[in-house]
Design a protein that fits this description.
6-stranded antiparallel β-sheet, Galectin_CRD, Jelly Rolls, lectin, Galectin-like, carbohydrate binding
Length: 346
């Protein structure tokens, strides 16, 4: 166990306030001049609307910090929002957000997440920071994504891959000097008392907002209601590094009105119906297998009068003709080797 984690554990054992006393955390949720590598408990966890501000100085070319935990310490640094205290070794707690400015030849900003000891697909951007200059990074959590602002000049968005409620700690490492770190609580929600309400007669003409969920674990199950038609399903998923199956089912009571099985070992998508416990004839015809490991995909499922339409990445993938009446469908299930990042019913 590292010295920083041992110190953190001792602080937590002797301090029930939830704040890291060993790191000069004052009553206004500020940490001044922390030594690196740093790992700190986030007071009250990470919630939508909360933000973390980090101010400091990026060390100049070839300036090595004796406290730096990285071998190539003058080439990059990292800010990690973590799901626990295990930040080193073969088995680490998940990292919901990895912000990694790199100052090597590529000079890129890399964003990523570590889930089950496996890094996901990188999101790369031009690095907005420079060596030898002061910097300010503000990370703001929203319901569906992070907004990461650099020196008030550049703001980059990153879609959640891990639920906000899982985030417990922040880690900073690398060749950088941190002057201060500050936590800002979510602004209070507005009260609606006394506001004019929408008349009943007008409500039917207002389109309902879509139902949206973020960062859901698999297997995932949700009731769906047939009202004149099934809602359009849109969801974003990240395929794991070594996938085997991803399956989705539209259930109609004890039957399966539409079963779709993405089979990576066969490079096929099998579609079928299960009626009274028995599978019917499979459909496998497909122009191209659209999925690859360690990639993110957006899927749309439309239920039309005669068939389902499935789109992947905005492109048509296949149709599946109804064999059971779609008005009988009452539930949607999704399971397999993927992470559900966003799910929307429209």
């Amino acid at each position: 166990m590292s010295i920083a984690v041992e110190s953190l554990t001792r602080s937590l054992a002797s301090d029930t306030s939830g704040c890291l006393t060993a790191m000069v955390l004052d009553v206004e949720n500020r940490i001044y001049a922390p030594k690196l590598p740093l790992i700190s408990i986030i007071p009250n966890g990470m919630t939508a609307g909360k933000s973390i501000l980090v101010k400091g100085l990026i060390t100049g070319k070839h300036r090595k910090l004796c406290t730096c935990s990285r071998k190539k310490c003058f080439s990059n640094f990292a800010i990690n929002l973590c799901c626990g205290l295990l930040t080193d070794g073969l088995h680490r707690d998940n990292i919901a957000l990895h912000v990694n400015p790199r100052f090597d030849n590529e000079h890129k900003l890399v964003l990523n997440s570590l889930i089950d000891d496996t890094w996901g697909p990188e999101e790369r951007h031009k690095n907005p920071l420079r060596k030898g200059q002061a910097f300010m990074i503000r990370i703001t959590a929203l319901p569906d994504l992070f907004k990461i602002a650099f020196n008030h000049d550049v703001t980059i968005e990153y879609l959640h891959r891990v639920p906000l409620s899982d985030i417990k700690t922040i880690q900073i490492e690398g060749c950088v000097i941190v002057d201060a770190m500050e936590y800002f609580a979510a602004p209070p929600t507005r009260r609606t008392d006394g506001l004019m309400k929408t008349p009943e007669s007008a409500r039917s003409s207002i389109k309902a907002d879509p139902f949206i969920l973020y960062a859901q674990a698999l297997p995932f199950s949700l009731p769906v209601n047939y009202k004149e038609a099934l809602p359009v399903l849109r969801f974003t998923m990240w395929v794991l590094k070594s996938p085997y199956r991803i399956e989705m089912d539209f259930l109609a009571g004890d039957d399966i009105a539409f079963h779709s099985s993405v089979r990576f070992d066969e490079q096929s998508i099998v579609r079928n119906v299960q009626r009274r416990g028995k599978w019917e004839n499979e459909e496998r015809l497909l122009d191209i297998f659209p999925f690859q490991p360690s990639c993110t995909y957006e899927l749309e499922i439309h239920c039309l009068a005669e068939h389902f339409v499935v789109r992947v990445g905005g492109s048509h993938c296949y149709n599946f003709s109804h064999r059971l009446r779609p008005e009988l469908i009452d539930r949607f299930n999704l399971k397999g080797n993927a992470r559900l990042l966003k799910f929307c019913l429209e």
